[in-house]
């Protein structure tokens, strides 16, 4: 099976916010087809589509009511088949989002399951008797409140790690597992090129579903993250499905370390190709979790990424991402979206596209789109944000106090419509957008980017071209330089006699970088820089704020 998923660049499309072709204010599949030439121009190889299956959209498609049909708002199965065909014509692969830790409560399986305790589908979900008036255990949901919902009809509770409308599927049930594998094959036989697997390391829960004694933050996490049978299930999935196709798989696995992560991606274990680790995404989360925003340090950023590089370099492969549909925009979180938006967007892209691992671009990051700050909670759409807002209101916090962390870490930061041009609603829709467009769209949009040769877009395009031209960028070993420095992030990559040097100033100050002698002596050729670079390398170089350079030697 090919290594195309190691050498390729992935572009994540959040269809709801990408492009609306029929004026109903919601992005759709026909809209994506109309923008495939844009993605071809950028040079990406693989599109990861967030869920497009039938869904009541309690959690924007992560609550699936029919795995074999397309969500009404996004179009028809024929539209999907056209999208897949048009993408393949352009040499672009498509991977789908597999959401099988839970379904929608409107899925026929759950409708049947809740009918009676002896219904054939009862055991497709996780039902337990309460403890008197209380839930079966003290676990809490990612979206606030208990992880259990009482169902009067059969006087039992069902487990939902996420929304009430997202009941967890019971992977202990072999029939359920067989249904999942059958559905996966149905999509793979249509010609899709793989799956991103939603919280796939949550599918095995600890027997007995015990109370979590340290009940702070997300209660119960350690009793379902990386559970007792998760590798058994994934090896079965690989045997029954994945091994039969030349595809790519990437598991979303909150709560993994490199040691645990390797168990999912070690090629000899026949499970997955890649995973998304969350250690970097938790770098600015304090003890109170994601909403307890704390400053992050570059030395921690470097330590985490290098630890993951070392952890997987022999027996696995890394994914490299700095944002997605659940995370704030990378230029606002890790860069400087005020005075140095363009420079810091290019700096961060330099890291993502010169580190070892498959790079993931989230829609809009290639034009430097930023976080948003709506005045009122009424402008927000994300269930995680709204539930948390209401929970905090009940605790007596003021709207202003609650909106502050939402501005920094809310998922809607990533879900405002893609900014195509400076016409109304950024050219995303002719109708009323399902969520407001970021007001900065007149300044930040694709049309403007394509007209400016120094735009973030062309910098991403150049980085992608370099990856295709120099195998050292894909496969090169990493040697960290200045690792204790809080402003400079620098390393070399080496592979079969090819070498590159990456120098990045992650600060808003000018810094002087002393280049190691041996690097000066070899004839350096600059490959890319986010400022005009006059000189080649002397032994001491002043780097401007957020300046990045990549040299070949
Ligand atoms: O996210 C899983 C997950 O861990 C999220 O709770 C994420 O860490 C958190 O939202 C960060 O704020 C996946 C999907 O990516 C997410 O969109 C879904 O809401 C969730 O699973 C349930 O399907
Ligand atoms: Ca539409």
TrEMBL record:
Question: Which InterPro entries does its entry note?
Answer: GH (IPR017853), GH13_cat_dom (IPR006047), Glyco_hydro_b (IPR013780), O16G_dom_2 (IPR045857), SusG-like_C (IPR056300)
Localization: Cytoplasm
Keyword annotations: Cytoplasm, Glycosidase, Hydrolase
Q: E.C. number, please?
A: 3.2.1.10
Gene Ontology CC terms: cytoplasm
Residue spans making up a coiled coil are none
One GO BP on record is: oligosaccharide catabolic process
Q: Where is the Glycosyl hydrolase family 13 catalytic domain?
A: 12-415
> Which Pfam families has this protein been placed in?
Alpha-amylase (PF00128), SusG_C (PF23915)
GO MF terms held by the record? alpha-amylase activity; oligo-1,6-glucosidase activity
Keyword Transit peptide present in the record's keywords: the answer is no
Q: Which domain of life is it from?
A: Bacteria
Family per record? Belongs to the glycosyl hydrolase 13 family.
NCBIfam families per UniProt: PRK10933.1
Record protein name field: Oligo-1,6-glucosidase
